[in-house]
Design a protein that fits this description.
alpha/beta, seven-stranded mixed sheet, 10 helices
């Protein structure tokens, strides 16, 4: 793998490991879970989940992204249902789901609380939510380290949408929103704690650095003292 691919692996491994335990809940009498991927785009998660034998539906507002999803699914040889739409018409598009993936979506919706309420409505009782959001503390650090001190200062307490990446959340803010929508928050993981900070050339120059980076990401993902450094927060919650 290239340095970029190894870095991406370190960035997503913790999320995939959390998802693995959720998706393993289907038994011999239930061949696959009904998985809803909101804003699943080109199928980076959806196609892999479908490859595990689950029934996956992607809801995304972009027809171009859904077309790319269809091509990727065909190349891999799996079936994924693609529906054009967004959270505002979710209940009209899909039936009850066992698992909902909402990755990188809460940042750009008009009303995060209403979005979570819509997810709660389509998730079956006992169903699981995988929520991935951008974290504000890490964005402040990144701006300051890049020399954009004024931008870092402006981000400190900014809970609104900002630029292309949309709003960012603190751990307290997002867990409060999820609990307020009627979910029981199970775990909160820090994602990309160090993966975005380690210079890319080091992954090629130092043997074993990529594997060590992956081990480090796993080791710090559940340590609360490292959560403020995480570029993203991954929450697993139950309806």
């Amino acid at each position: 793998m290239s340095a970029s691919e190894r870095r991406d692996s370190a960035r997503t491994a913790v999320v995939w490991e959390s998802l693995g335990s959720m998706l393993d809940e289907s038994g011999p009498d239930q061949p696959g879970l009904k998985v809803l991927d909101i804003g699943g785009g080109t199928g980076g998660f959806a196609v892999r989940v479908a490859g595990l034998g689950h029934r996956v539906t992607v809801v995304d507002p972009s027809p171009d992204a859904l077309a790319a999803l269809a091509r990727r699914a065909r190349e891999v040889g799996v079936e994924v249902t693609a529906l054009q739409g967004d959270l505002s018409d979710l209940s009209a598009l899909v039936d009850e789901a066992d698992v909902v993936l909402c990755h990188g979506v809460l940042e750009v919706v008009d009303d995060p609380a209403a979005a979570l309420a819509a997810i709660h409505e389509v998730l079956r009782p006992g169903g699981r939510l995988s929520l991935l959001v951008a974290q504000r503390h890490a964005a402040v650090i990144a701006r300051a380290m890049a020399g954009h001190v004024a931008q870092a200062l402006a981000l400190l307490d900014d809970s609104g949408t900002t630029g292309r990446t949309g709003r960012r959340f603190t751990a307290d803010e997002v867990t409060g929103l999820v609990a307020g929508a009627g979910f029981e928050v199970g775990s909160v993981h820090g994602i990309r704690v160090f993966a975005d900070l380690v210079p890319g050339p080091l992954l090629d120059l130092e043997p074993g650095t990529s594997a060590a980076l992956l081990d480090l990401e796993r080791a710090v993902s559940e340590r609360p003292e490292y959560l403020p450094l995480a570029t993203q927060l991954h929450l697993v919650a139950t309806r």
